[in-house]
Amino acid sequence: MKPDPLPWLLEPDEANPGVRHFGLRDLLGRPLNDPEVIAARAAVMRSGPVPAILDAQYPEGYWVKPGGGYSPKYRSTLWSVLFLAQLGATGRDARVRQAIEYVLAHSQAETGAFSCYVDARPSGAIHCLWGNVVRALLDLGYWGDERLGRAVDSLARSITGDGYEWYRKGGVQAPGFVCSANYGLPCAWGAVRALWALNRVPAAERTPAVEAAIETSTDFLLSYDVARADYPHKEHISSSWLKFGYPLGYVTDVLLNLEALVEAGCGDDPRLDEAIELVLSKQDEQGRWKMEYSYNGKMWADVEVKGQPSKWVTLRAMRVLRRVRGNRDGQKVG
Predict the structure, then answer these.
(1) Please, is 75 exposed, middle or buried when counting C-beta atoms within 10 Å of its C-beta (0-12, 13-18, 19+)?
(2) C-alpha angle 49/305/39, rounded to 5°?
(3) Portion of the chain with pLDDT greater than 90, in percent
(4) Are 50 and 88 in contact (CB under 8 A)?
(5) Residue 82 · residue 69 · CB < 8 Å
(6) Is residue 85 within 8 Å of residue 53, measured between CB atoms?
(7) What 3 state SS string does the chain have?
């Protein structure tokens, strides 16, 4: 038995207040109206990386320059919104809502997809970005907005090929996560991000298209070795799969793959066993996990220190392990 890192995660921390917020909510199961959860969410907006990101926002709602917001990485509009959601910002904040409205007005293609191109052409709708933005807007409380509903529906149909006619050479090429950025091969990074997004759609409101896309995504991801990440590649398996970090850009690690698959209800699948052992093997003698990759120096604010024990990575690992334990014990785990 290694020491329990939960007290470390729940301690007040002005540099990373979002960890306490998510820890109370996801590890202790506290409801959103719990006074400590409310206070922890308020602390996220006062100190740490979230206010630093918001301080760099232009009054019109964008970061760096007007337009689609994909470049430059990782300070432009789309990335700033993704990181705000991942770091625990509230979608009720006026500045956050203005940023979301800017994204919906300037980054959403006519198909409903989110595009990496300046003019939001459908051909720039790459699954990793598309899934990231959908997940962020869902986390920020935008479910029920018709524009997000279109994004979810088209994302689901782009995965299954049912009623989606906008495949282009420059981006998503065909059903099955085929992507030009992966040399025309199916892209697991895109599959993980798409599944991660669709998991967040309220279960009672999932359409048959969304359910089919979730099943297609899990089938694809489980058809390979999750621990080795031997998904289709041209030259070699990316070493990034085996490096855990936070926040999450388009690069995907084994831990996020596990998070997405476990959220989708696959926590009791024995094909995850080796990946779970990989996660456990990275825990140090204090019960903590290190930050193995980082966007520090590229974002508006640094998050922890690469190579050192990380509250964010530890939170991620504990959350997925808790869900796996709940799945295998037959319990309902939120």
Answers:
(1) middle
(2) 35
(3) 86
(4) yes
(5) no
(6) no
(7) CCCCCHHHHHCCCCCCHHHHHHHHHHHCCCCCCCHHHHHHHHHHCCCCHHHHHHHCCCCCCCCCCCCCCCCCCCCCHHHHHHHHHHCCCCCCCHHHHHHHHHHHHHCECCCCCECCCCCCCHHHCCHHHHHHHHHHHHHCCCCCCHHHHHHHHHHHHHHHCCCCCCCCCCCEEECCCEEHHHCCEECHHHHHHHHHHHHCCCHHHCCHHHHHHHHHHHHHHHCCCCCCCCCCCCCCCCHHHHCCECCCCCCCCHHHHHHHHHHHHHCCCHHHHHHHHHHHHCCCCCCCEECCECCCCCCCCCCCCCCCEEHHHHHHHHHHHHHHHHHHCCCCCC
Burial class (CB in 10 A: 0-12, 13-18, 19+), 275: buried
Q: Which residues pair with 312 in a beta bridge?
A: none
Output the six-digit token pair for 35.
């006074």
Tell me the pLDDT tens digit for each residue of 148-186: 999 999 999 999 989 888 776 556 666 789 888 898 899
Query: What pLDDT is attached to residue 188?
Result: 97
Please provide the distance, in angstroms rounded to a whole number, between the alpha carbons at the two ends of the chain: 25
Q: Is the pLDDT of residue 332 over 60?
A: no
pTM greater than 0.85 (yes/no): yes
Span 286-294, average pLDDT: 97
* Residue found by looking up tokens 């892209």 in the block: 187
Place of tokens 């969304």: 210
